Amino acid sequence: MAVHDSSRDSTSLKGTLSTCEEKFPTALTVLLDVVRGPERFPADQELKEMLRGKLRVLQVDSAEVDALFMELSGHVISINSEENSIVVTFKTFDEIWKFTTYYKLGFLAQCMENLLLDQKFWLSSLEEEVAIVLWNIYSHLQISFTVLCSARGTCLATGEYVAEGSDELNIAPGDRIIIMGILVSCFEWFTGRKERTGEVGLVKTSLVKPSADTFSLVHHFCYPVLTKQTVKSSHVTILCYSVLSLFQLTLLFFCFSYAVHSSGKADTQTDLKKNIQRFLEQGKDSSPDFIGIMNETLKSSALPTEPKGPGLPCFTVHPVVEVNSTENFIPLFSFLDGQDYKVEFGHLYGLNSEVLASSTFSGHSDHDELIAFLCAARETARKKRLFWSQTRLCFLLGKLCAGRSKFSQASIYFEEALGIPLESFTDLRLVASIYSHLAAIYLLQKSSESFFAVTERLVALLLGIPVCLQNLDNSVLKYVLKKAILSHNTMAEARACYLLAKYHWNCADRAQSVPYLERLLVLYVEAQRTWRISLSHGYVALGKLYGELCLPYLSVTSARRASLQSSATLSDCLSSMVLALDNVHKLYAITETSVLPQVAPFLQQALCFTRAQGGGRDQYYVLTHQLTVCLCQLFYKHKMVEPAIFQMHTLINSPPSQQVPISVQERNSALIWLAWLHIDNKQPNVAFDILDLVLSCMPEHCTTPQEGVALNMCGVALRCMSDLQRAAESYQTAIDICKEYEDLSNWPVAQANLGLLCLKAGAKELAERHLTEAVQLFSELDEKGHEANFITVLLELGQHYLKQQQLYYAKGCYEWALLLAISQLSATRKLCHLYRCESPDQAQCIIYSQHQIQLLRRIRDRGLEGDALVAISQLYLSLGTERAYRVALDYTKSSLGIFIDLGCRKKEAYGWLQAGKIYHLLGQTELVDLYVQVAQDTALSTGDTRFILKLLEAAGDIFFNSCKDREKAITFYRDRALPITVKTDSVPTRLRLCNKLTEVMLSLKLYREAVEFAQTALDISITLGDCLNERVACHRLASLHHCLEQHELAEHYYLKTLTLCPTPLEFEEETLYYVRVYQTLGDIIFYDLKDPFDAAGYYHLALAAAMDLGNKRSQLQLCTRLATIYHNFLKDRDLSLFFYQKARGFAAELNVRRINISPDQWYSTTS
User: Fold this and answer.
1) What is the pLDDT of residue 15?
2) Total count of domains within the chain
3) Angle, CA of 931, 933 and 937, to the nearest 5°
4) Are 782 and 804 in contact (CB under 8 A)?
5) Which domain holds residue 168?
6) Where would I find the SH3 domain in this sequence (predicted)?
7) What CATH number is associated with residue 1163?
8) Single pTM value for the model
């Protein structure tokens, strides 16, 4: 901590700091590890991998860790996830000092926990005590201080001393002196009280020795931040923070697709029923509504304003004449006289010269006239021997002269004030003010000897009597701190830090008190002893200051450290919880006011305190109840239903002597909440029993809004038990009660539940009516808090419209839901699905997909963000333009980076492959092989054979589906993927690969190689009984044999293909296939085998199919060929003329000019 002051020690201190600065490293490697339990045993591999995964994410996106270390006064150089390390550097010695301070206070590790641990982890690790520890820091950043003599208690005088002023004590050898505050060996004076006479004054440190009851303990400091009233108010704040919204009815119509399970053993359920019955009975004579009590407590616990002292009187200044009347000074003397301190004097001592001249005195034209009047008053007081009036007048004259920069004259007045013969100086604040002004003047006059003499006396007063601090300058306090540090006296340093922190706090310059409060706590921690002060209060005070300075990590960590102190009490725990609630949302840049999981440890600890300290007091019972419900809500919010149920059962199953005397409404609300937890835990029968008990305790002939809530919940439980009839009746009764009481917040919920029940029962029209009514009711609500329920109803109604093919209404519901919840994912996902699948619109789908990515980034779900980036990349790829390809490439690379960070090796492999595919589409062939090879290597590193097979096939597909480099597909299919299919006996994949190899080889005219794979495909298809693939294989074999001029085999496989075609024909494509195959067979027989007669038979079959299809161009071709055969080869002129005329007719229709039936035109091979 650097101390800025103009004194003779400044040079030596600067030299000390420079020397220290050279010894400190400029870079520091912080090693992180996860430990478990109070013994700090190494955590299991799963937790270690969780830490590495988070560090991998931070390696790419280091904004969060940069922000944290900026708070900690460091700068991140690099992050190594494999070694679990972060390398930090520092630019100034001040940054090193702060970082070291945070480490010694235990802040670093807990700040890293807030950064690296997931939200849910805070709840799951409540019992396990998992923590993050840091290594390799203390050895680099260690600063030690040696504790010398500091004491309090009493001491004995060793010599005689005659006081030179009224501020000193006369002492004789053997006098017992009571130490006021502390006695510090490095200072010349201390404040003491003579035990025999009770006189208070300054005593030379060198003239005393310890007595039997002298002990080395720092004074009982009181932090200026927290009072009992503040803590009492904190109790109420934490209760009202989330409790007021606990019992608001939420939409309880989630779709349960599970079978109803039993709730456990029968005796356990019976015991629960008995305890609930007792819980219900004890509330009949309970206290009034808890919320009302809390409101009253809030009013009664408001912080009292500090009582203001009476205002200063205003004195009239009379003109100075040679003979002044004493009567002119009587009011002034009456006010200033008296040896004891008064509140009015405190205000007077604190006024500056301008305010003093303008507000306290009137009737003067300028300062000179006022000073002349006060000089005359001083002289009169001296003659009248009114020593206290004379002393205070000298002080006022000194202030006025100093204000006009007449420092020599001011020092004369101040010295005169100290030299006036008084019996004893009981107004110690006056003495301190005089010393303070004198020290400032001596400093300006560069009178070092006088400055140190006066400062030593002032220090003695401040160390003994902290109230003297008011209205003083902090230069003296910095001198105290500097001398304590150079003397290596930690007790004096602690006292100086406390006084400086208090000084800045009182001056409303609270930010300046932070370093002093930090150092004070470090000194306490390093002492490793039990203090009379509350360290928890210190940490809370520091946390409040961090919060005001917008340092949320340090603020939340301070709150946690406060609650972890061994001396922490329930009040400390609640105060820490309030501090954490105020700042934890800032860690994640969110504005919601719900309780976050980081507060769970505070709730757990507070529950332990309340259960241990209950002692029959109602306020502890009420607090236990509310803390339990709050903790349950946290568990439920993060899908941890069983722990939530356990907490509620612990509350209900407590002994009768510890039952909570809460209001009937709160009691019922808690049980309804427990019922919902059991429903969510797939125990609707248990929930129904609880709700039945609640309803049975309600008045029979006097319904209440809460009865409607319970009936609505009963409907949910009955629906889960598949008792739809009773569920509908329960919902309808709830709706009737809501109508009766005009309960507009719960009415649409029950209405929506009934609508969804109708949907499940298949009554679509009735369901639509109820859901539409629910939407109308929700839309009429003005208050906030119902948006989530409204959105859910809109999404369900939109899904109903979608199934009914009413796309216009579906779009309306989805877009309305999105407008209500622009920051929610569910509506955006529905719209993405709608525009991708149900009502394809690429532009709209891209817009909503981009919005979805923004939402995912906001909630920091990197896994889902990566998947969304992959989806939008595919959308841009489908546009088919070079610009769209490049945008798709950017999204693919972004998703690839996320998957690498998260360690998702399979998704990473597909990411590399997708990037290679896009480069192939862009024609950048030099990068394609590189990306595909990396994808292959990544897939091999997973060790998953089936996944490797899929990726190799996908790699081949890149070239298979392209018109460039198709031969590369053969390498992936035949040389890499196919052997794996044989090894793993993956028959369907082998069939698919054989088909692809046949196709690509056929296109590359590798006919002989292709025959082998086509035959294999045919054999596998026959084995699997796959008729479609068998037909495809036969067709390809026929084509291959045709190309190889093996015409008999080609004819055989073409005919076999036709026998595998389905009959009767259903689609035009099937008829067209017959036309082409028969025509191909005719061509083979006619042109290759030179058999016109058989060829004519195939052409006739082809012509019949073409006529059935109505394909005139095919009929033209076939009639022409038949005319040619009958005219030139079979010599049947009638048929030749018939087909020729038919061909002429088709030619005229198709605008074909000439038909050639000469034998030379057609009689050639087709191979």
Assistant:
1) 37
2) 4
3) 115
4) no
5) 150-210
6) 150-213
7) 1.25.40
8) 0.65
